[in-house]
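DATA SHEET
Item: assembly model
Revision: 1
Owner: S.N.
Input lines:
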Amino acid sequence: MPRMKVAVAGAGIAGLALAAALSRAGIDCHVYEQAERLAEVGAGVQLAPNATRLLHRIGLRARLRSFAVAPWAIEMRRWDDGSLLQRTPLGAPCRRRFGAPYYTVHRADLHSALLSLIPAGQVHLGARCVGVTQDGDAARLRLSDGSTVTADLVVGADGIHSVVREQLAPDQPRYSGQTIYRGLVPAERVPHLLGASLVRLWLGPGRHCVCYPVSSGRQMSFGATVAASDWREESWSARGDVAELAAAYAGWHPDVAQLVEAAETVSRWALHDRESIDRLSSGRVTVIGDAAHPMLPFQAQGANQAIEDAVVLAACLADAEPDDQSAALRRYEEIRLPRTTRIQRQSRENAKTFHLADGDAQRRRDTSTRNSSGLDAHDWLFGYDAGQAATTSGSS
Ligand SMILES: Cc1cc2nc3c(=O)[nH]c(=O)nc-3n(C[C@H](O)[C@H](O)[C@H](O)COP(=O)(O)OP(=O)(O)OC[C@H]3O[C@@H](n4cnc5c(N)ncnc54)[C@H](O)[C@@H]3O)c2cc1C
């Protein structure tokens, strides 16, 4: 007999990871997704050891290996002459140090892998959440077709524009002034970037570009930021203009210019974030992933944090006494808030330092970047074990 019934709004990485972790713990969980079909966007995502160790534990070790790329290093370079600012070793040194790999993957592959862990019939499509109500005995997810789902706990995994978050905070997403063009290029169209598998970043005045291989190396995924005061579109399907992108990167190192020119289509995405909130739950309602702590993607940790949230929340619920769900939610918040708040702040900070105009501040950044090469600086981020945090005292 399941002890608890959980209803989740949103089948993104957070919602699917939670459903997978809860199913593994024997907790009944149904996911309600607004989209009519599950089709993750054509883009890549970097998965650091803090998330891959959790994905391994929930049963995806072999599956991940079948499509992931394990880059050899992250290289940060200057925008114009391509000179090296920093090389962070990944590959074997990273695996040895943190006990788990650093992977770059296609989002659709990760999505399908998570979905494969969820029992059939537990993800409901075309189910848009329009509100949440609760009383002492139950929480209710209201869907746009007028129906209601009743559960012991409602979890908002409904992304940055979360409807469920409205139960916790009245805030709104804030536009960062930056947009990002994303594209996938067949590997053979960028021969200059093949050879060693790398995550490559080029930093320049007001913008930066990142690229890495995905789909077992068959494609190169890239993201290139462009500041824009007037762009508000926030959808993966919003088409970007390849010519505009190429013009924005004119004069950059040929490696970058050739990469963006090799894209046939690109999506354009307005980057938003929100201030941290001081609680993650209210009664029988809680939030995870971007619904809880959206962050600018300048540390490549949003999805990683969503996976950490899912594993911790599932562990707290699995350990809870049947009549003490509120203690489980308090524990989830105590473990997660300090860490996600720190990462949100750091991601916002990177937005400034990545985009410095050439000059004194940029030279100081480059000197300190060169001096901080190596994995030591990543111990707090990659070395963190959210599963362990959930079974011991808690906060990061
Ligand atoms: C350009 C870019 C690059 C990034 N790169 C990385 C990276 O390399 N590594 C990393 O860790 N993170 C990265 N991130 C961040 C990462 O993509 C997000 O943090 C992560 O996808 C959040 O997952 P989520 O499931 O919380 O939210 P989402 O992915 O937004 O999923 C929310 C889901 O809920 C559904 N939904 C929304 N509203 C409702 C509703 N009312 N009812 C029902 N369903 C609803 C949506 O359709 C969607 O399926 C990047 C982000 C961007 C923008």
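QC remark: The chain has a mean pLDDT of 93.
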